[in-house]
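Quick review question:
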C-alpha cells in the first residue's frame, strides 16, 4: 500500500452529499493547513450525523405492545404485516402473542416495533436486558436466546420444546369388539355370587377378575435400556424444537420436530450419564432421520439410536453444536 493511500482521509461527508475532503499533504502554508483542519472537522461532524440517523422501518413492519408491569413479559401484536408471524407466536385471548425471544429477534431484524404501556418504543437493548433477567418468564435465558437467534438466522423454525411421550396405538382385541348381552352379565354376576372365593380380584385396583381381562390390558413396550416405568424423571427436558422450513408448517400442529436441542453453557458441566439417559428416554420411538451422519465420523451400529443436539454457548466462542447419540449403554460404571 502506497503512502498516498495511507494519508487519504475517510470522507464521511460523502454519505451526506457534502464537499469532498482533500488529501492531507506536506505543504507548510497556513492557508492549506486551515483548509485541511476545516475539512477534517466537516468529516468528523458528518460521521456523528451518520451515527445519529435512525434507520427507516420497512413498510411491512408489524407492531406490538409489551406489558412490563407484570410477568411474563409477552408482546401482544396489534398490527400484523408480512409473513414474519407465520411461524412464531401463540394465541392468547384471541390475540397473537409473542414470547420474549420471538419479539427480541423480530425487533433486531427491524420487522417489529414494540411499545410499552407509556407508548415508548423499545430497542433491542431493552429486550436483551429482559432476557438477562431470570424473572422475565422463569424459563428464557440469554444463552437460550443466542441459540434461538442463531438457528433463526439459518432459516429454521424454532419453537419452545414441549415434553411429549410417544403414544402407543391401542390394538382392539376380539373380546372388545364383541358386544356383551344381558344374559352374559346375569351369568357372570350369578357365578361371582356362587363361587365367591374363586372369583376374587387378581389385581390391586379390584378391576379385573380373570386372566383374560388382565392379558387384554397388556401393551407392547419398545425395548429400551432407558425405560423405567416407575421412575419419575427429575432432570431437565429439551429447550428447543427445531423444524426445517416448509410451506406446510402449522403452529397449532407442528408435528414431530426434525431436531431437539438442549442448551448448555460452555463453562458448565456436561449432563451426567444418568441425565443423558433420561433425555434419551424422551426420544424412544421418535424418528431421527433428519440427523444425517457426518461422513466418516459415525459408527454404523450407533446410527439408529435416539439422537438430540446439544448447543454449547460461550462468551467469545459463539455457539457450537454437539450431536448426542444413544448407544444403548445404561451404565458404564
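Suggested answer, residue by residue:
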Amino acid at each position: 500500500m502506497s503512502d498516498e493511500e495511507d494519508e487519504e482521509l475517510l470522507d464521511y461527508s460523502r454519505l451526506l452529499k457534502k464537499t469532498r475532503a482533500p488529501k492531507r499533504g506536506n505543504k507548510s502554508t497556513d492557508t492549506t493547513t486551515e483548509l485541511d483542519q476545516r475539512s477534517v472537522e466537516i468529516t468528523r461532524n458528518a460521521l456523528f450525523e451518520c451515527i445519529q440517523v435512525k434507520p427507516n422501518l420497512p413498510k411491512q413492519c408489524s407492531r406490538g405492545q409489551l406489558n412490563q408491569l407484570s410477568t411474563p413479559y409477552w408482546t401482544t401484536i396489534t398490527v400484523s404485516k408480512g409473513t414474519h408471524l407465520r411461524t412464531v407466536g401463540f394465541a392468547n385471548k384471541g390475540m397473537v402473542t409473542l414470547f420474549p425471544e420471538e419479539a427480541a429477534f423480530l425487533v433486531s431484524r427491524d420487522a417489529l416495533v414494540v411499545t410499552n404501556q407509556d407508548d415508548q418504543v423499545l430497542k433491542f437493548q431493552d429486550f436483551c436486558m429482559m432476557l438477562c433477567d431470570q424473572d422475565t418468564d422463569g424459563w428464557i435465558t440469554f444463552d437460550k436466546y443466542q441459540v434461538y437467534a442463531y438457528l433463526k438466522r439459518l432459516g429454521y423454525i424454532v419453537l419452545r420444546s414441549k415434553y411429549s411421550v410417544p403414544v402407543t396405538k391401542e390394538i382392539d382385541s376380539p373380546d372388545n369388539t364383541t358386544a356383551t348381552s344381558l344374559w352374559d352379565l346375569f351369568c357372570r354376576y350369578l357365578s361371582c355370587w356362587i363361587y365367591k372365593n374363586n372369583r376374587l380380584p387378581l389385581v390391586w385396583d379390584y378391576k379385573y377378575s380373570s386372566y383374560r381381562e388382565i392379558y387384554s390390558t397388556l401393551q407392547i413396550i419398545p425395548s429400551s435400556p432407558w425405560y423405567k416405568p416407575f421412575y419419575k424423571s427429575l432432570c431437565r427436558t429439551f429447550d428447543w424444537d427445531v423444524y426445517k422450513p416448509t410451506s406446510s408448517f402449522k403452529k397449532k400442529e407442528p408435528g414431530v420436530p426434525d431436531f431437539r436441542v438442549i442448551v448448555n453453557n460452555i463453562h458448565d458441566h456436561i449432563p451426567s450419564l444418568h441425565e443423558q439417559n433420561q433425555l434419551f428416554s424422551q426420544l424412544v420411538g421418535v424418528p431421527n432421520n433428519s440427523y444425517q451422519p457426518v461422513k466418516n465420523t459415525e459408527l454404523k451400529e450407533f446410527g439408529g439410536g435416539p439422537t438430540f443436539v446439544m448447543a454449547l454457548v460461550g462468551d467469545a466462542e459463539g455457539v457450537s453444536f454437539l450431536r448426542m447419540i444413544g448407544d444403548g449403554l445404561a451404565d458404564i460404571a
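Why it works: The first helix runs from residue 3 to 6. The CA atoms of residues 114 and 120 lie 8 Å apart.
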